[in-house]
Amino acid sequence: MFTDFLKTNGPELLIKAWEHLYISLIAVLLGILVAVPLGILLTRMKRSAPVLIGAVNILQTLPSLAILAFFIPFLGVGKVPAIIALFFYSVLPILRNTYIGIKGINENLLEAGRGIGMTSWERIRFVEFPLALPVIMAGIRTATVYLIGWATLASFIGGGGLGDYIFTGLNLYQEEYIIAGAVPAIIMAIFVDFFLARVEGKVVPRGLKGTKQAV
Amino acid sequence: MLKLENVSKIYKGGKKAVNHVSLEIEKGEFICFIGPSGCGKTTTMKMINRLIEPSEGAIYINGKNIMEKDPVELRREIGYVIQQIGLFPHMTILENITLVPKLLKWKEEDKLVRAKELLKLVDMGEEYFNRYPHELSGGQQQRIGVLRALASNPPLILMDEPFGALDPITRDSLQEEFKHLQRTLDKTIVFVTHDMDEAIKLADRIVILKAGKIVQVDTPDEILRHPANEFVEEFIGKDRLLQTRPNVELVKQMMNRSPISITEEKTLQEAITLMRDKRVDSLLVVDEMNVLRGFVDIETISEFRKKATLISEVVNREVFSVKEDTLIRDVVQRILKRGFKYVPVVDEHQRLVGIMTRASLVDIVYDSLWGEENTMTTESV
């Protein structure tokens, strides 16, 4: 039964999977570009940081379908609004982890940095960012796995992706369509997370790996 | 070189952490700030590189007011060694040492040359370059911390209880090493500590602070001999005051001038005979020029009696010695702290000239007791 499905839909499945992947990845990439600098900025604003994090938290609780629908009047349907909506969801985990990662750095190290004459930018670049990187990477991995799941909803507003199969399957009571949508999405999430774990291993400074205490 | 003029730090709420401190420090001087916690010693030090901005007064380095300088530039010209080491765990030793040169945009090859020079200063090899801080012992880490401060060759170095986290024996040897380093490199040092032993050992002048004010500024000897008031006296401690008897100061005045020694080419049998004659359980080993080479004790000899015949085969080369013009009080500290039974005394060419034993210490104590019977008991030995 399923082999028949693959025979007729195989090439299309690949295209859908590819759509799914790049919608999620572009959204995560945008999320990283916005959330990491914003998270660093938040660590510089002692008073407003908790308020802003709270605000982003609330944004996160909005139902994803509602967000997707919300963008239709402004951006219409298609891939762009889907990516933008997903991007909003990627911001919070990355932002929060960046903030926590940097806040958690040992005060002594920051003072050492200041004491030997680092500018604010040099401290971010040479001390704070590398030391917070393991925590930031954890946030990026969480966000990516979430987004690959949520990207199925993009189908609702014409964004394409594996969600197309799932919704077709639901509408027509065709199990193989649902499976054809869900299983590749799961496999994709697992693979991407594995890949990101490898990336993390590459970018996290070697000196941090042997230390037991979390930075 | 460094001048503090009426410097105060007042925090919000009116708390005066530092209260009208004035001080002049000469080039090449080793200054220790000491006092109970909350006395303002760290605050005063941190105002020198503007980690804390003074509320009142002015600080001059070589006649220039530091407030007119960019704080980042100022800090790059002043070495800084932090409490608890403060090496960056994600950087290799090489990267840590050459951090300030990197901030100053030195060329790669200059940085490498400098890093090699620096490691040589503390007898560490280039194999450490690519290690990470957590792979080093506490003592090695703090050596690297000191090197990082020395990297761009700043004339002035600030140190905030740098040896506080180390175990007593490592601390002791690092202090020794660092004092020597400071003399050879001719650096001006401002050193914060709460450990009076450390201050006495290292400082040219000690600045005693209490509640944000300077109580006394003087050489260790002057402070020990003439404490300014009761607070200082209490802070130094009574037993330490006794160690500074004016007529006995140097090791050579108290040492036993006829240490029992033997040369390396003698046999173990001869050593045993000598020990029996002189009624001692260890012998200092010297060469034909009377230069100290090591020691042998009765345990080692009986252990190796079957396997070895010559002293040179069993001599223990890890012998700790002091120079004859060391201050008595430093030797006393060491004998007590490290639990040595004796310390050989050498001249500047490492030639054996005498020995300080626990018996010599007892003599010193008896001398002290003669004068101040009521304040000291033999228990403190």
Automatic annotation (TrEMBL), chain A:
Domain ABC transmembrane type-1: 17-196
Keywords of the record: Amino-acid transport, Membrane, Transmembrane, Transmembrane helix, Transport
Predominant place of localization: membrane
Sequence intervals crossing the membrane: 20-42, 49-72, 78-95, 131-157, 177-196
GO biological process: amino acid transport; glycine betaine transport; transmembrane transport
Cell location: Cell membrane
CDD domains noted in UniProt: TM_PBP2 (cd06261)
Gene3D superfamilies associated with the record: MetI-like
Pfam families, A to Z: BPD_transp_1 (PF00528)
Membrane topology of this protein: Multi-pass membrane protein
GO cellular component: plasma membrane
InterPro entries noted in UniProt: ABC_transp_perm/SBD, MetI-like, MetI-like_sf
Family that this chain belongs to: Belongs to the binding-protein-dependent transport system permease family. CysTW subfamily.
Protein name according to UniProt: ABC transporter permease subunit
Organism from which the protein derives: Bacillus aerolatus
UniProtKB/TrEMBL annotation, chain B:
Keyword Transport: yes
Gene Ontology molecular functions: ABC-type quaternary ammonium compound transporting activity; ATP binding; ATP hydrolysis activity
SMART domains xref list: AAA, CBS
Short name of any one Pfam family annotated for the protein: CBS
Phosphoprotein found in the keyword field: no
GO CC, any one term: plasma membrane
Enzyme Commission number(s): 7.6.2.9
Enzyme class: translocase
Domain of life: Bacteria
Coiled coil regions in record: none
Keyword terms, alphabetized: ATP-binding, CBS domain, Cell inner membrane, Cell membrane, Membrane, Nucleotide-binding, Repeat, Transport
Major site of localization recorded for this protein: membrane
Gene3D superfamilies: CBS-domain, P-loop containing nucleotide triphosphate hydrolases
Residues covered by the ABC transporter domain: 2-236
GO BP annotations listed: amino acid transport; glycine betaine transport
Membrane-protein topology: Peripheral membrane protein
Catalysed conversion reaction: a quaternary ammonium(out) + ATP + H2O = a quaternary ammonium(in) + ADP + phosphate + H(+)
Localization in the cell: Cell inner membrane
Domain (CBS): residue spans on this chain: 255-313, 315-373
Quaternary structure annotation from Swiss-Prot or TrEMBL: The complex is probably composed of two ATP-binding proteins, two transmembrane proteins and a solute-binding protein.
Family: Belongs to the ABC transporter superfamily.
Name of the molecule in the record: Quaternary amine transport ATP-binding protein
